[in-house]
Amino acid sequence: MFDEFSGNPPALVKRRVTVRQIAEKARLSVATVDRVINGRTTVRRGTALRVQSAAQALGYQFTVPIRVRTEEAPEAIKCVFLLQRRASSFYQHLAQELEQAGQRDPLPGVQVAIEHMDDYLEPAKVADTLRTLGEQVHAVAVVATESNPVSDAIDFLAERQIPVVALLSDLSSPRLAGYAGINNRMAGRTAAWAIARCADRPGRLGVLIGSHGYIGQEEREIGFRSYFREKGIEFTVLEPAVCLDDPEIAYNQTLELLQTTGDLVGIYNVGGGAGGVLRAIEEIKPSRKLAYVCHELTPVTRAGLSAGTIDLVLAHDVPGLARSTLKMLADLKKTPSARKQSVVVPFNIYTSENI
């Protein structure tokens, strides 16, 4: 069934205005506008209004009515989650929980899709993917580092009423719709508290960070350092070594720390690559116990806790994060907000005694 939407479509007055110009002004794809103005299909009323408004603004006058669908069911809200490395056990777990959240606690009319960025932390590729997704989905949650290309892509999607939520690590874009994750500064201070108690004496502390572009990881490092400054505890926190959340790089960075840093009493791994740190410690076998705190409970870190090499793991409540983020995306799409929204989920603390 369809209605005829008066106001004149196809057979337009002959002026040098192209379908592409109408599409750009309507912020729709060329294919969609072509189908509408040539009457090849029925369309939603909102789409018809956008095409008609854009065409008339450019000087077109329609001679045939646009066919508009009637009695159509509400369109499903398509939510996509753009995650980092597919090979990461943490991101595999997160993807699984996101898919299950859409099935186990279904929100009416909400669909979930998962995409991975295997080109680690390449802002231009993340930005291009975000722009491409804007043609296919209604809301996006993204794990990304701070960069101008990503901010520009968020602006691009915001102009098209597609909310973008920063997942795990916040972003500073003014058009960002929300953030979902833990309080990263608090997590860093908790890591410092644990190391201060697990280290057998004051000394030097190594820090490994995935990328300074991750605001969340920067906040963890800031919280870690601030704890020792405020408490006046006699530990020296070294400058962070960048490991790109890669186990092999983290392994080499840790070997260098262990072999060249005198009086090293602890390591805080701010991001990923925890298995590489674990392997280096187990290979070198320091003469005295080394305090080691890291993030996310995975098969590797669980084994490290069990063996006593890792003292503490700080982990996202992944099922809770998945449910909260999905609900936030659906809510933002249904009821846009002028103010940035935040969902701060608690983090779990694991030791060898509660895994």
Could you characterize what this model shows?
With 355 residues, this protein is of the alpha/beta class. It folds into 3 domains: 2-69, 434 Repressor (Amino-terminal Domain) (Orthogonal Bundle); 77-182 and 318-345, Response regulator (Rossmann fold, 3-Layer(aba) Sandwich), CATH 3.40.50; 184-316, Response regulator (Rossmann fold, 3-Layer(aba) Sandwich). The chain is 43% helix and 19% strand. The chain contains 12 helices and 15 strands. The strands form 3 sheets. Strands 8, 9, 10, 11, 12, 13 and 15 form a 7-stranded mixed sheet that branches. The chain has a 6-stranded parallel sheet with strand order 4-3-5-6-7-14. It has a two-stranded antiparallel sheet with strand order 1-2. α1 packs across α3, α4 crosses α12 (318-334) and α9 runs parallel beside α10. The longest helix is centred in the middle third of the chain and has 17 residues, at 215-231. The radius of gyration is 26 Å and the shape is elongated.
Q: Span from first to last CA?
A: 58 Å
Q: How does the major sheet shape up?
A: 7 strands, mixed
Overall pLDDT score: 88
Cα gyration radius (Å): 26 Å
The CATH topology of the largest domain turns out to be: Rossmann fold
Number of helices: 12
What's the name of the CATH homologous superfamily of the largest domain? Answer: Response regulator
Along the chain, the helix and strand elements come as EHHHEEHEHEHEEHEHEEHEHEHEHEE
Tell me the quaternary state. Answer: single chain
Number of DSSP strands? 15
What percent of residues are in strands? Answer: 15-25%
Query: Percentage of helical residues?
Result: 40-55%
Second CATH tier, the architecture of the largest domain? 3-Layer(aba) Sandwich
The coarse overall form would be: elongated
CATH class of the largest domain: Alpha Beta
Structural class: alpha/beta
User: Segments where pLDDT lies below 50 for 5+ residues?
Assistant: 7-14
Total of domains:
3
